[in-house]
Amino acid sequence: MEPSIPASAAPPTLQVRNLQTSFFTRAGVVKAVNDVSFNVGRGKVLGLVGESGSGKTVTGFSIMRLVDEPGRISGGEILFGGRDLVKASEEEMRQIRGNRIAMIFQDPMMTLNPVLRIDTQMIETMQAHRKISHEDARQRARDTLGMVGIPSPDERLKAYPHQFSGGMRQRVAIAIALLHEPELIVADEPTTALDVTIQGQILAEVQKLAATTGTSIIWITHDLSVVAGLADDIAVMYAGRIAEYGAVSDVLDHPLHPYTVGLLGSVPSRNKRGEPLRQIPGMTPSLLSLPPGCPFQNRCPRAADVCRQDPPMAEILPAHEARCFRPHLEKAEVAA
Amino acid sequence: MSTTIQEAPSPVRAEGDRMIEVVGVSRRFAKRLDFAGKILAKLGAPIREEVVHAVDKVDLTIRKGEVVGLVGESGCGKSTLGRMVAGILPPSDGTILWKGKDRTGLGSKDARAAMLQAQMIFQDPMSSLNPRLKVAEIIGEAPLVHGLTTRSELGRYVDDQMRRAGLDPVFKARYPHQFSGGQRQRIGIARALAVQPEFLVCDESVAALDVSIQAQILNLFMKLREELDLTYLFISHDLSVVEHLSDRVVIMYLGRVVEEAPTEVVFSRANHPYTQSLLAAVPRIEARKKAFATVQGEIPSPLNPPSGCHFHPRCPHAFDRCRAEIPALKEVAPGHKSRCHLNDLPNHGGMPV
């Protein structure tokens, strides 16, 4: 364990710099993640928001170095604890993955082995990364299950994954992610498949964890309202790039990018009941045939000639970046 | 008092004819014992048939032109109820009246007409569209079979249906997999509308779509409602979608209706503790670093539901009576029904919100 430094002086847990992940398919090169940069501070929660195909999951997988052929990281840096993960060897990644960076998936059965008891899986996970006796590992597994709100953890350790409900299974997956007290957790839509009341319980647990353990979290989701209450910062992704990046209140209350404005406007609770919802016309473009320039130009109400060039990521307001030539500097009309 | 759950639907309030009346409808799914199980049970082994009461004595009236939102978490029976209302699943008990008549008692011609009038739009368009048929065949098959168009007119008929659902007829020779999720959902809508229904059951029809596409489909539903004078039963777990679309909201929990009221009333003065906790748990975009409200506990297994009020193990206000006796669905205000014993307590006058 490294000595803890005061949070203010500490460098961010994770710095992603100009990350590029491309898939070299027969139909052409798909830039799934294109020039993506962000930081996650210690104990902070970053909400990575986007619609399907925006590259949010591939960003998460890139950080874990889990991108499979034909995809590969084709540029940029992922700085984690002073080390560039892009250049790390597979053996080094094996030491980091699951140990210092953990991932939680949407479907907990991606984490859990259906034919092994929970205790076997948890103890195995711990012994893979450190020398720990079977008894101590069991003790730690039990404590972690209790920490994520699983009642009577002693008995539940002996159960198989199918004996848990969906919400409980996700808690087990979170507990496994927490076993090694990772510095960073990448959570990919972990509550999307759950009912609202269960989602509320999980979000409350995660909030408590980030506050008490200092674990940094990247929360990948398509649901702006989940990260509104959970995250410190938000990065909105569109067509492989970050469209807008800043503190939650900046991005949600004063969105700069027309895509963020459109996304916020189409949330039903932000519209007057019974009236047509404000919608973004058209659909998400195929990453294989992006127009030159801003990928949002064909759907954008503010598009102009200048948008046929590539907009750079720019700090338009203090600590509030957007990739747009014509951002909403006046207060955008998103609230109903 | 426990018999009052079968009380007749309340007298006519709003204008508009009754489109669908669901009276005391239940649906049970049983896992029958196999041969070995039967023998073991005879020999005294503790094996029984497992019966799930997916829907338990539900009353529901939907009037012409209304949009009724049906809300609940997984396993509450909302989809089963929707399927019974749409006529694709027979109820175990109770009757469903279509415009005042029992569908099961109709002659085959009338029954078929009644079936056509109620159509269903599903959550996953990929598994509800035949992947081997072209879009024109998917949309055109039913109207041709039912004589709503002729073979020579079919091409134009399909074009009209596609345009109405916001699809370009140029794509009619394509297969479902060549479309995006939102477009596929439009194919499902065009298929349902092709037989000229009056009533649509939408079962989580926008749940799988991205927010920006979801808004497009919801707007399409509202446009079609005005153009075609449609009536909807809109099933969803997403309260914000239901709030936006519905005139009236029905909340289900473990097979029973726990609350029913006009939309504004549910979202401003929810009476049932379950409705209140559901509303509290919904993430709101206005929230910043808030502590997430949590309802204790899990949704119980419908195989072995709690006694009395199904919600009592998770309810912060539960008292002895809740464990022993099933509360009745009673009117707490005009047009507002709730199934909670707290409303019988003196000096209560509705739950604090």
TrEMBL record, chain A:
<dbReference type="Pfam" id="PF08352">
    <property type="entry name" value="oligo_HPY"/>
</dbReference>
<dbReference type="GO" id="GO:0005524">
    <property type="term" value="F:ATP binding"/>
</dbReference>
<keyword id="KW-0067">ATP-binding</keyword>
<dbReference type="InterPro" id="IPR013563">
    <property type="entry name" value="Oligopep_ABC_C"/>
</dbReference>
<keyword id="KW-0547">Nucleotide-binding</keyword>
<dbReference type="InterPro" id="IPR027417">
    <property type="entry name" value="P-loop_NTPase"/>
</dbReference>
<dbReference type="InterPro" id="IPR050388">
    <property type="entry name" value="ABC_Ni/Peptide_Import"/>
</dbReference>
<keyword id="KW-1003">Cell membrane</keyword>
<keyword id="KW-0472">Membrane</keyword>
<dbReference type="InterPro" id="IPR017871">
    <property type="entry name" value="ABC_transporter-like_CS"/>
</dbReference>
<protein>
    <submittedName>
        <fullName>ABC transporter ATP-binding protein</fullName>
    </submittedName>
</protein>
<feature type="domain" description="ABC transporter">
    <location>
        <begin position="14"/>
        <end position="264"/>
    </location>
</feature>
<keyword id="KW-0813">Transport</keyword>
<dbReference type="Pfam" id="PF00005">
    <property type="entry name" value="ABC_tran"/>
</dbReference>
<dbReference type="InterPro" id="IPR003593">
    <property type="entry name" value="AAA+_ATPase"/>
</dbReference>
<dbReference type="InterPro" id="IPR003439">
    <property type="entry name" value="ABC_transporter-like_ATP-bd"/>
</dbReference>
<comment type="similarity">
    <text>Belongs to the ABC transporter superfamily.</text>
</comment>
From TrEMBL, chain B:
<dbReference type="Pfam" id="PF08352">
    <property type="entry name" value="oligo_HPY"/>
</dbReference>
<dbReference type="InterPro" id="IPR013563">
    <property type="entry name" value="Oligopep_ABC_C"/>
</dbReference>
<dbReference type="Pfam" id="PF00005">
    <property type="entry name" value="ABC_tran"/>
</dbReference>
<dbReference type="InterPro" id="IPR027417">
    <property type="entry name" value="P-loop_NTPase"/>
</dbReference>
<protein>
    <submittedName>
        <fullName>ABC transporter ATP-binding protein</fullName>
    </submittedName>
</protein>
<keyword id="KW-0067">ATP-binding</keyword>
<keyword id="KW-0547">Nucleotide-binding</keyword>
<keyword id="KW-0813">Transport</keyword>
<dbReference type="InterPro" id="IPR017871">
    <property type="entry name" value="ABC_transporter-like_CS"/>
</dbReference>
<dbReference type="InterPro" id="IPR003593">
    <property type="entry name" value="AAA+_ATPase"/>
</dbReference>
<feature type="domain" description="ABC transporter">
    <location>
        <begin position="20"/>
        <end position="279"/>
    </location>
</feature>
<dbReference type="GO" id="GO:0005524">
    <property type="term" value="F:ATP binding"/>
</dbReference>
<dbReference type="InterPro" id="IPR050319">
    <property type="entry name" value="ABC_transp_ATP-bind"/>
</dbReference>
<dbReference type="InterPro" id="IPR003439">
    <property type="entry name" value="ABC_transporter-like_ATP-bd"/>
</dbReference>
<comment type="similarity">
    <text>Belongs to the ABC transporter superfamily.</text>
</comment>
